[in-house]
Amino acid sequence: MKSTINRKTQIFLLGIMIGLGVSCVADRNFDALETDCTDGISANIGYAGVMALYEDQTLQIQEDWIIEGYVVSSDEAGNFFSELYIQDHPTVPTAGFQLEMDLRDSHLFYPGHGKVFVKLQGLYLGKSGERFKLGGTFIAFGNLSVGRLPANAVDAHIFWSCDQSGLVSPVVTDLEAIADKPLNTLVQIMDLEVSEADLGLPFAVEREETTRILTDCGDRSLILLNSGFADFQNEPLPQGNGSITGVLTKDKETFQLIIRDLDDMDFTGDRCEDVIDEFTSKAIIISELADPDNNSGARFVELYNTASLPLSLKGWTLRRYTNDNTAVSSTIDLSGLVIGVESTLLISPNAGEFESVYGFSPDLAVGTNSPADSNGDDNLELIDPFGTVIDVFGVPGEDGTGTSHEFEDGRAVRNLGIIQGNPLFTFSEWTIYNDTGASGTLQLPQNAPDDFNPGIRE
């Protein structure tokens, strides 16, 4: 083992350097510290073996297992924070892990493209959607989850290898084949450009995690996830077409990419020509409407994409006809949103109350008296960019009270067999709960959160 300043001392000295440098340096960039390297240990388990331990709940690893990995993330530009992504092979990875740790400027200790060993004993293994995580632990909503490993414990688990002969390079792919690539690994995606809706915008809103939409010439889309604390937060998004390299992640069914810095983007080519980025599809449907009897602030509208590709909602609107009005009362513009493969999109008129009641944030926060704020006797239409009614709930011009389309103090749920929108309200496509509805509806008021399942179509 090579002997240099030990890791705890390095972290301590780094803190002093940053503290003293606040008033005398223009940025927070430092040269990488000389790092202890380890050559006396080796991997004794593969990624698949570790992942097989997970059975629907976070667990602590008790066995004395070690994996090796190749670092593919970097927090040098501030787009990653308190996390390290590693994959199991430098060029042809089959799996990757997200390591949660409370260590800032980790690029000084674990530079990108380097090889590390991770001692798993004592670490927690968890899952966020389809992505595997390793780290410490914390309690969220009564559930054990993977959290950040304390800084003083990092060097007891993550070791810089003395063998740095493996040169990391991204897997080259395109959006058509992205579903076949393992998550938490480094990819280079070709033939992309910033969506028309996002051109001219900065990478991120200051101090806020921000999503931007990338598209290819086949009108497929991908989310670019950017930190509002990144060095390039206020830089304008590039105008051209080209390739982008980053760590591939996923939120529910929607693929996302996180870049390390602006060098990961090469959008110097010409943009796609004659690409129609507004389109119609019957695969987007209204899947649930909610008016809880016990909490009007927990109302929501849920849309669902039954297709096998994520769909951009540029130009789409959701409109409401209040009571028996024949004129549109309010409208929600859905442009800028992407609805994932066989996934929901949740719209709330009170985002704070929604999160308090259901335990997570809605996809879109709108105001009161909007289409998402119906008291159960209104009518809604889902409109494509060309003005066509794709789906409808209720009968515009007819007050819902006492009818087959009343969901006051209850909910309206689209039956699972319905996979296409219908511009004419058809009662048999719905299961409807209310307090005073017509025969065939269920006169059984619903209370939040127990009687509702936003984000899950079942």
Give an overview in words:
The protein has helices at residues 7-21, 47-51, 151-154, 351-358, and strands spanning 59-60, 66-71, 83-87, 96-100, 115-119, 124-128, 131-140, 143-147, 158-160, 171-173, 186-194, 210-215, 221-226, 241-251, 254-258, 265-269, 284-290, 300-305, 311-312, 317-321, 330-333, 338-339, 344-348, 364-365, 379-383, 389-393, 411-414, 430-433. By secondary structure, it is mainly beta. The radius of gyration is 25 Å and the shape is globular. The model is unreliable at 1-5 and 7-28 (pLDDT under 50).
Runs with pLDDT <50, length 5+? 1-5, 7-28
Number of helical segments? 4
Distance between the termini: 56 Å
Class of secondary structure makeup: mainly beta
Provide key terms for this protein:
458 residues; mainly beta; six-stranded mixed beta sheet
Report a brief summary of the structure:
This protein has helices at 7-21, 47-51, 151-154, 351-358; strands at residues 59-60, 66-71, 83-87, 96-100, 115-119, 124-128, 131-140, 143-147, 158-160, 171-173, 186-194, 210-215, 221-226, 241-251, 254-258, 265-269, 284-290, 300-305, 311-312, 317-321, 330-333, 338-339, 344-348, 364-365, 379-383, 389-393, 411-414, 430-433. The chain has 458 residues and is mostly beta strands. Mean pLDDT is 91; it is low at 1-5 and 7-28.
